[in-house]
Write a structure and sequence with these properties.
- Keywords: Membrane, Transmembrane, Transmembrane helix.
- InterPro entries: UCP026631, YdbS-like_PH.
- This is PH domain-containing protein.
- It comes from Nonomuraea antimicrobica.
- The chain is of the alpha+beta class.
- The chain has 4 domains: 2-52; 56-149 and 230-317, no CATH class; 153-228, no CATH class; 329-467, PH-domain like (Roll), CATH 2.30.29.
- Helices cover 44% and strands 24% of the residues.
- The protein has 14 helices and 19 strands.
- The chain has helices spanning 2-20, 25-52, 91-95, 122-132, 166-180, 184-200, 202-229, 269-273, 306-317, 329-351, 356-362, 364-383, 421-426, 449-459; strands spanning 55-58, 62-67, 73-78, 84-89, 98-104, 115-121, 147-148, 233-237, 240-245, 250-256, 260-268, 276-283, 304-305, 385-388, 392-397, 401-408, 412-418, 428-435, 441-448.
- The strands form 4 sheets. Strands 6-5-4-10-9-8-7 form a 7-stranded antiparallel beta sheet. Strands 13-12-11-16-15-14 form a 6-stranded antiparallel beta sheet, sandwiched between helices. Strands 1-2-3 form a 3-stranded antiparallel beta sheet.
């Protein structure tokens, strides 16, 4: 695959160069074919040399890897620090029975803590996974999967803002590709012609473009869901969770349960309106594997019905989510006042617009700001909630993206109490639980002063006591 990408990237500029030198068609084809053969041969030779100079071994204490052509590298990971094993196989590797093994130690890959074996045979990869995680080949999940793919979930795939920007993203990427190949004149001519047609027939062009954009976005979302979450299965093995998914590129991620510090139920607005939600894990050191990877490594489920998301979160965390206590009315009042102040600023700016032709239209800005701000205030205040369960601190917040976090109380390392000037006037504060997992801190926003301090004091008994002054204490 890499060879083909390099061939295409080299062949197009070479063909343009030869056309500019008035080469015959046969000569251009022959030159491009020769360049393609040379590129493929170089890439294959490089991969063979890389494989011949790569060695790995597993001892009783460490997993070691030696690699490098010009600069030799020797990396090793202590076996007792292995926290996750990720197996991946794209369609080409699957055709040859190969897999990539990524061994993580609970830290980010950018820190150099991840060791990658590429490639191993599928059988060797699975055997290495079981060995590193101390799992017997005979061990099977006792109670069946925690969740398994239902293709009816695909109806939630288009419920994303990317659905409405799909065609624009595709056109932007295509424009960059063509521009890099020197086709800027062609793209400019096409764009100019399309714009002239749109301005000449707006009543036909605008609905047509919106419909095409929506159709492309829906199709892309459905295809992406199918490729990413095909064959999805989440199951509990002794002491660990295993997530398997992927239609073309298969992925298998195994996480030790002792690394888990809680779960998060995420409900973006469109998905929430459709009755769906996602479940993410809160685990130590779990994040994107590298800067060039966009997948959410913490995702435990695709978009699923909210009731199922709550059940999966409860089974993963080992306890049900308690009923949430609402926040004081002052929390809503703060948000309403913020919306009104923002609208007043926008209205003052609209009144100062010097152009007469714009005075009628510019008042739409404060009107839209007021409507959106009031919705944001009401929805944001309605989403606020918190509770203290037997094992977890539960907090919910967010209007556009509502997040419900169940954080294991044993994973809380400290507290940050924030009280702004306006919060202090309203008798509110924000309590932030600090942890080594996930985003590093999780907030209970705009909670009553007494309730917030009491919540922190009871969540981790003794941690906050030296900083509290009890009423009635001498």
């Amino acid at each position: 695959m890499k060879s083909l990408a390099i061939v295409v990237a080299a062949a197009i500029p070479l063909a343009r160069f030869l056309v500019g030198r008035d080469w015959p068609a046969g000569g251009i084809v022959a030159a491009c074919a020769g360049a393609a053969v040379l590129i493929v041969a170089v890439v294959v030779a490089y991969d063979l040399l890389r494989l011949r100079t790569t060695r790995w071994r597993l001892t009783h204490e460490r997993l070691e890897l030696r690699s490098g052509l010009t600069t030799r590298q020797h990396r090793s990971v202590p076996r007792d620090r292995v926290r996750s094993v990720d197996l991946r196989a794209d369609p080409v590797r699957r055709a040859f029975g190969l897999s990539v093994v990524k061994v993580g130690t609970g830290e980010h890959a950018a820190d150099g803590s991840e060791l990658v074996l590429d490639p191993l045979s599928r059988r060797d990869a699975e055997a290495l996974r079981r060995t590193l995680l101390h799992q017997d080949a005979a061990e099977e999940p006792a109670d069946g999967p925690l969740a398994e793919l239902s293709w009816s979930w695909i109806r939630y795939a288009p419920l994303s803002v990317w659905t409405f920007t799909g065609a624009a993203v595709v056109l932007g990427a295509l424009y960059k590709v063509l521009d890099s190949f020197g086709a800027k004149r062609l793209t400019t001519r096409v764009a100019t012609g399309a714009w002239e047609w749109i301005t000449a027939h707006p009543l036909v062009a605008v609905p047509l473009l919106l419909g095409v954009n929506l159709a492309v976005g829906v199709l892309g979302a459905v295809l992406l869901f199918a490729e990413s979450w095909g064959h999805y299965r989440l199951e509990r093995e002794p002491g660990r969770l295993r997530l398997r998914r992927g239609l073309l590129t298969t992925r298998s991620l195994t996480l030790e349960e002792r690394r888990l510090r809680g779960v998060e139920i995420t409900e973006p607005l469109l998905l929430r309106l459709g009755g769906g939600a996602r479940v993410r894990t809160i685990a130590t050191g779990l994040g994107k594997a590298a800067d060039d990877e966009t997948e959410d490594a913490a995702a435990l489920t695709p978009p699923v019905p909210r009731a199922l998301a709550v059940r999966v979160a409860a089974r993963v965390s080992g306890t049900g989510l308690p009923s949430l206590a609402p926040h004081p009315a002052a929390a809503r009042r703060r948000r309403v006042v913020r919306a009104l102040v923002t609208t007043a600023v926008m209205a003052a700016g609209a009144a100062l617009v010097p152009w007469d032709w714009a005075r009628g239209w510019v008042w739409l800005v404060p009107a839209v700001t007021l409507a959106y701000g009031m919705w944001l205030a009401v929805a944001g205040a309605a989403s606020l909630g918190h509770a203290l369960g037997p094992r977890h601190l539960v907090a919910r917040r967010g209007a556009v993206v509502r997040r419900t976090v169940a954080l294991d109380r044993r994973g809380i390392a400290g507290w940050t109490i924030t009280e702004s000037l306006f919060q202090r006037r309203s008798g509110l504060l924000t309590v932030s639980a600090t942890t080594a997992a996930g985003r590093g801190h999780y907030d209970v926003v705009d909670v009553g002063r007494a309730d917030g301090l009491d919540l922190a004091a009871h969540a981790v008994p003794g941690l906050l006591d030296p900083f509290l002054i009890r009423e009635g204490a001498s």
